[in-house]
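Example record for the data management plan.
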Amino acid sequence: MKKYNVCMVGIGAVGTEIVRLLRKRQFPVEKLTAFATRERTEMIDGEPLEVKVAAGPESFKGYDFAFFAGTEGAKGASKTLGWGAAEAGCCVIDNGDDFRMDPRVPLCIPEINPDALKAHQNFVANPNCSTAIGLMPLYALHREAKIKRIVCCTYQAVSGSGSAAIRELEEQTRAWAEGKPAVAEVYPVPIAFNVIAQIGSEAKDLPGYTSEEAKLGRETRKILGDDSIQVVSTCVRVPVFNGHSEALHVEFHNPITPERAREILAQSEGCTVVDDLSKGEFPTPIDCSGKYDVLVGRIRRDPSVENGLSLFVAGDNIWKGAAQNAIQIAEKMIEMGLK
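Corresponding structural encoding:
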């Protein structure tokens, strides 16, 4: 089997999971290097990883894939180095949002739109974590009944903001237990025992909505290839360490029953149905963490519209919402003979 030289830009929460998943999925790695702001050796699960400083596009020569491993909303690295790396012959897979809507750049979930990769110019974008998790079940239902409108409410874990946010939730929880004041640095207010109804800044093109909420609509339409789909969302940060959840209320052009939806989703790659109220079975962030599949449940008819379903999903935002999807893109490119 051919092996590939792989590098990452960033070695935070997403970058660390990329390393773990490359090993777990037995990706054919010849050489693995990380680029960050200072040189060092990082130990990940007892194995060393060489960390270098990227001097410029020339640093990417000889590498086959470069994972730009920023957390959700991260900007800068791919804008500075991405296209230079692509021109040096290295295929960039970018977790940031700088180029997701760029017409030159495929925005890909491999189970949904792998053919988009055929148009790659050595640069592919990973979708936003909430988009990836929500579309895994929605795509299968879209093929059956054609989506008209999505109303989405997200419950997003702090791991989406990176390692510092995880520590902040830990420290605030400990402070609460000790009767001390909670110190907020990553978020504008304490996240422990609280919810924050703002993720990102105000969207310039959608007044009153956040950048996270705007992404869901734009990215959904691009990935599904349907500009007619209407999306409205409210994105909320919750005091959960890992695993994003979403309440999805979907209106379809054609009729679809909950029973048919369960049947379709049970056969859909990347989805696991967890849906039995009588047994207290439904998706949770704890259950989805460390799993490849998105969990889908609470599938029921929405009586407020003619062809409506409501469902609840949970997915590992660092895995399927970031690191896993990025690696799957590389795997799919190899499978399709594109690299």
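Summary line stored alongside the record: The CA atoms of residues 156 and 237 lie 5 Å apart.
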